[in-house]
Amino acid sequence: MDETTPVFAITAAAELAGMHPQTLRQYDRLGLVSPRRTAGRSRRYSMRDVVQLREVARLGSEGVSLEGIRRILELENHVSRLTDRVHELEAALADEMLNRPGRRVFAAGSEGEVVSLRAGTRVRRSNQVVVWRPLGK
């Protein structure tokens, strides 16, 4: 069970959010906070929904219209999805950079020079030391 699990009936969610149940019904009709439905079509709110209801109340108390609140929530959700996607892409890129063929390995030559080697290539002399550092570290 996590913050998105729908567990609260409308009365409990309204109490947690400090609102009247009818207000929650109105917000659902307007698409501000849309809870999941049971098989019998009853509303079930998650903790995330309750937090969002509190945010709607806060924005409303600051004078933001319901349409403005709807737009703000829509944009915040969009930013959250984009942020998640960026993290996915960064992880995929880091994985690709570490695992791509042909990454470079460096060795110190017998006279102290830096010798570039392809991955999987062995050093020719036993007195050479291989130095390897993963990308990004």
From TrEMBL:
InterPro entries named in the record: DNA-bd_dom_put_sf, MerR-type_HTH_dom, MerR_fam
A Pfam family assignment: MerR_1
Coiled coil: 72-99
Keyword Coiled coil: yes
HTH merR-type domain: residues covered: 7-75
Keyword Oxidoreductase found: no
GO molecular function, one term: DNA binding
Keywords noted in UniProt: Coiled coil, DNA-binding
Protein name per the record: MerR family transcriptional regulator
Species: Humibacter ginsenosidimutans
